[in-house]
Design the sequence.
């Protein structure tokens, strides 16, 4: 396997992505290992190889050998790390892909405040340069490039499914309107596995009188280019959404229930594209919160107890944890927070593309036990999330573990409460 | 020239120069690497996030204090103890006044110095024991972690031995160990004494724009 690994390409990519922030992270890490205490993979296995700081080792080796200030002086005394090898990269594939959801909990506990999740994202770009990475995740990224979505949902499939959902539910789901204030994007996970979420989103938009449309020019919100480390695919996905929004004159682009899609477009989109976005990007929870606050959505009270799973990329790494609560607090009379919650919540175990990596399935299921304990501790009858990827991860894990609790979509629950 | 004169004279100036130039070189070197321009629409104030992160990461947050209580207590014992000894031990205040700044300040009474030194010793030893016994730290640690620890320990030990000022040789050994540490400092992980501000600030600024401090 190592014969086909392009180690030099990986080294060059590592060197290219090391900015001042990454350098400061790599120079500040004191190997205290506290990050392990915040990582769900270490929490359930107690295996030290899952220590988040260890995931920085390949990029650290390249930095210390090739790019760190004073590395030239240290090299004279043989004090720089050995050159990165194909064996290193091959060994680290599991650590960088199967066992990091880029949830960012490790940053919270790090005395240096190191953003290890971002370094894992950059390291995946180097792995791709080397020709490495899980086949299923790479295939999903290629599907996004060639077919428009990781699950192979082409624009024809999109149109067919929207027509079917609209007819079946007797609801208007606008597609390819020439002009609209709001471009609503979809996650193929929702469209193919949880289509009720699309219907629910349409109900909310229509009930609030939003001037909206879905566009076949750019519809897929998930960005498997970002998740896999395929930078070119990441840019293609951002370009499609941007062109679609620009072509209809949208002022707002709504990201559906998907955490990583939010992070990719809201916080990385302009940087990947190379120019500021001429529209605002909001997560569906933020958009719902606005509609509720503006009196555009009237919701019936819900008496049953309910708890909320924060998608990491929306809350801890996205800064929008309050939006879902602003919606829940309007109709949920018995809203129960998990512990920890909000920006400190435990990950579902399938973020960062891990959901799409078959070899990580067993590990994901083990991680889900943390979530089971959190939910059961609340005693809530209902559990909702605002991320279809979290939902799919948890649905698969609860099936594997035989846990009977249903996991619902916040958008669907809110649509059910429309007055 | 006696051994003491050598360590307090030429060797001191050489070591101090390597330290100052090396630290500055490394810090400026990090900053001048640069980073891509941030183009997303800001939700929060980046400098505010940076300041908040520098403060916030002084204590494990997010409900994680209990999980990291060993490092928290022992780490603070070592760092606070070392800081107090370094800047408030009577011989150090004298040295700073006579050799570096030209002015000094009131040193700690001896009993307070003893407490600070004991805290620093206990902290450093317990951190090293943890590094040698905890599976996670063993997995992460490399030679640089151990060299930094042992150099610091030797400096502290020779400092205690020199405390009575009963023998010039002991004071010279302390000076020599300090000079070794100063020369090593810019090249190793001891630099975290400065780079922690950079790493906390970068994360704080990045996420401060997003309206959150992880």
Sequence:
């Amino acid at each position: 396997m190592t014969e086909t690994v392009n180690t030099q390409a990986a080294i060059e990519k590592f060197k290219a992505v090391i900015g001042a922030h990454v350098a400061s992270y790599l120079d500040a890490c004191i190997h205290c290992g506290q990050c392990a205490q915040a990582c769900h993979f270490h929490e359930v296995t107690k295996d030290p190889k899952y220590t988040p700081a260890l995931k920085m080792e390949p990029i650290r080796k390249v930095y210390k050998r090739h790019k760190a200030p004073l590395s030239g002086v240290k090299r004279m005394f043989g004090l720089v790390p050995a050159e990165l090898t194909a064996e290193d990269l091959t060994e680290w594939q599991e650590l960088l892909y199967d066992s990091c959801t880029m949830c960012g909990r490790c940053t919270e506990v790090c005395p240096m405040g190191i953003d290890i999740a971002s370094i894992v994202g950059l390291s995946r770009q180097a792995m791709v340069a080397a020709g490495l990475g899980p086949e299923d995740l790479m295939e999903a990224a290629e599907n996004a490039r060639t077919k428009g979505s990781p699950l192979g949902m082409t624009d024809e499939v999109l149109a067919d499914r929207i027509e079917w959902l609209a007819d079946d539910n007797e609801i208007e789901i606008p597609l390819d309107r020439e002009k609209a204030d709001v471009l609503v994007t979809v996650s193929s996970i929702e469209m193919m596995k949880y289509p009720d979420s699309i219907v629910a989103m349409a109900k909310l938009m229509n009930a609030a009188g939003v001037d909206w449309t879905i566009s076949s020019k750019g519809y897929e919100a998930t960005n498997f280019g970002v998740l896999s480390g395929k930078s070119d695919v990441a840019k293609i996905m951002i370009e499609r959404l941007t062109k679609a929004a620009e072509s209809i004159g949208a002022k707002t682009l709504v990201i559906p229930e998907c955490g990583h899609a939010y992070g990719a477009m809201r916080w990385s989109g302009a940087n990947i594209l190379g120019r500021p976005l001429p529209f605002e990007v909001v997560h569906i929870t933020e958009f719902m919160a606005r509609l509720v606050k503006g009196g555009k959505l009237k919701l019936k009270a819900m008496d049953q107890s309910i708890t909320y799973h924060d998608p990491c990329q929306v809350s801890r790494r996205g800064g929008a944890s309050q939006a879902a609560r602003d919606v829940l607090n309007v109709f949920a009379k018995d809203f129960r927070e998990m512990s920890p919650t909000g920006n400190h919540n435990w990950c579902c175990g399938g973020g960062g593309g891990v959901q799409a990596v078959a070899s990580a399935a067993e590990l994901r299921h083990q991680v889900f036990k943390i979530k089971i304990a959190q939910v059961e501790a609340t005693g809530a009858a209902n559990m909702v999330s605002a991320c279809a990827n979290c939902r799919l991860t948890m649905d698969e894990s609860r099936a594997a573990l035989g846990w009977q609790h249903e996991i619902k979509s916040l958008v669907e629950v809110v649509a059910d409460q429309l007055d | 020239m006696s051994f003491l004169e050598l360590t307090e004279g030429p060797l001191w100036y050489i070591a101090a120069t390597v330290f100052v130039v090396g630290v500055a070189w490394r810090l400026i070197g990090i900053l001048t690497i640069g980073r891509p321009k941030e183009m997303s629409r800001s939700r929060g104030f980046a400098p505010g996030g940076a300041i908040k992160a520098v403060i916030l990461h002084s204590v494990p947050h997010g409900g994680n204090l209990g999980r990291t209580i060993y490092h928290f207590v022992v780490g603070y014992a070592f760092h606070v103890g070392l800081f107090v000894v370094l800047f408030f031990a009577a011989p150090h205040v004298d040295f700073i006044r006579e050799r570096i700044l030209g002015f000094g300040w009131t040193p700690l009474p001896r009993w307070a110095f003893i407490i600070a030194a004991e805290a620093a010793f206990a902290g450093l030893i317990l951190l090293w024991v943890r590094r040698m016994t905890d599976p996670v730290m063993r997995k992460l640690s490399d030679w640089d972690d151990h060299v930094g620890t042992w150099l610091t320990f030797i400096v502290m030990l020779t400092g205690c031995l020199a405390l009575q000022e009963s023998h010039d040789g002991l004071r010279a050994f302390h000076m020599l160990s300090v000079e070794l540490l100063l020369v090593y400092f810019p090249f190793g992980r001891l630099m975290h004494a400065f780079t922690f501000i950079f790493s906390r600030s970068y994360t704080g600024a990045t996420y401060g724009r997003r309206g959150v401090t992880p």
User: Anything to note?
Assistant: Chain A has a mean pLDDT of 97. The first helix of chain A runs from residue 7 to 17. The CA atoms of residues 65 and 80 of chain A lie 5 Å apart.
